[in-house]
Amino acid sequence: MRSRIVRLIAAKELLDTLRDRRTLFVALVLPLLLYPALLLGLTQIVGMTKKNLADERQRILLDCEGGWEELAVLLREVHLEPVADAELALELREQLRTHREEENDATLGKLREGLEKGRVQVALLCAQDFRERMSSHQPAGASLLFDPTDDPSRAAHGKVRSALDRFTEARRAELHQRYPGEEQRLRFAEEPVERDVVPVATSGQRGAYNFAPMLGLLIVIMALTGAFYPAVDLAAGEKERGTMETVLVAPVTRTEIVIGKFFTVWIIAVVTALLNLSVMGLTFSKLAGMLGDGRIAFHVPLSAMLAVTTILIPTSALFAAISLALSSFATSYKEGQHYLSPVILVAMPLAMVGLLPNVEITYGLALVPIANVVLLVKAMLLGNAAIGPGLVATLATAVYAGIAIAATVSIFKRESVLFR
User: Fold this and answer.
1) pTM to 2 decimal places
2) Backbone angles phi, psi at 139, to 5 degrees
């Protein structure tokens, strides 16, 4: 092998690449501008979301005879709103007793339903002898119920722990001052409240909370790439092969050409997305079993599969139309491939919305393309009712896809684009 020839060929190919200013801008300059902006923007959004959760006043069911006022004051200081509901507290205590006897997902599900029924994010249930044990300077028990798959509940759990730490510090300082030489009281001061933390989420809900946002993100990216490469071949590739002119002189209209190519790309995108949904669902199921040690499980229910498939159909149509429109501007397959980078740069922030804490699908977010798919996947796998926003998301995405198809037809009717 002659190194001089290799260097000449490499220099020639590099020079040819640098001559294409559009490709150079899309491949090098655009990512350098957008990636930092994307990362900084997402960091700011995550920070703001966490701050909003910290400032928001979550509701806590406080069922505690001894130390009620002191605990209530400390809970309010950490932005929690204590509520009293004797009937709900009795129901949760009975369900908690049943859960300790049986310890299965069914009893955890009932505890979670109890929190939802009372519209509280967390519950603190003190032991029946809490007052007596506190008065005699003996550690007293308290059960803390929260939902680890709900971001406001997780935030409330952290606030309760902070309030209990303050309660412990206050008791410790008081007893050290009043009884500096009494060993029993000082031992009690180290941990006056024995906390029994009970995460009220089933193994399936834990798996959905951990894997659903990532699954939605991967489905969107796979559907996009599944549409883009066939579109590049059907538009830019046909120009490069010199067969575009043959198609244009055939006794068919430009609209018929575009719709025919669109259906081809659309079908491939839908099949790609559904295959990835199935494969990644199985992969995450195995991964959850390996990592969770039985406490985390993951599966895609049939209802979630149907709902996701319903919205993936118009979403894939939108990707197919956009990909076909962009590919028509390229003069070669190589140039068309570079147009994928800006599309992904635009799609990624929207697809990463599902990774943000405390962001759920609403009627407003259902109008945002791509984000509505990720949030609907997350909601369906978590078992949250999202029928209304899901219908709005499907209809809105179908409208966007129709607009994109019309724009693609208009682009194909321009000679300056097809023969540039």
Assistant:
1) 0.74
2) -60, 135
Residue 216 CA to residue 143 CA, distance in Å, equals: 35
* Residue 214, both tokens: 């990532």
Tokens of 198: 């009970």
User: Which tokens in the block code for residue 396?
Assistant: 């809105």
Query: How many CB atoms are located within 10 Å of the residue 178 CB?
Result: 9
Phi, psi of 137 (to 5 degrees): 55, 50
Helix pair 254-292, 302-327: axis angle to 10 deg: 140
Angle between helices 302-327 and 340-351 (to 10 degrees): 150
- Looking only at the bridges linking them, the beta strands covering 80-83 and 58-63 are parallel
Given a cut of 80, is residue 312 above it in pLDDT?
A: yes
- Average pLDDT (206-223) is 83
Q: Which of 193, 128, 199 is nearest to 164 (CA)?
A: 193
Residues 316, 269: contact at Cβ < 8 Å? Answer: yes
Number of C-beta neighbours around residue 263 at 10 A: 12
DSSP 295: S
From CA 151, how far away is CA 131, in angstroms rounded? 32
Which candidate, 350, 344, 359, 360, places its Cα nearest to that of 46?
359
Hey, which of 30-39, 109-118, 187-196, 367-376 has the most confident mean pLDDT? Answer: 367-376
- Please state, in angstroms and as integers, the Cα–Cα distance from residue 110 to each residue in 55, 221, 357, following that order: 29, 37, 24
Contact 305, 276 (CB under 8 A): no
Whether pLDDT at 307 is above 90: no
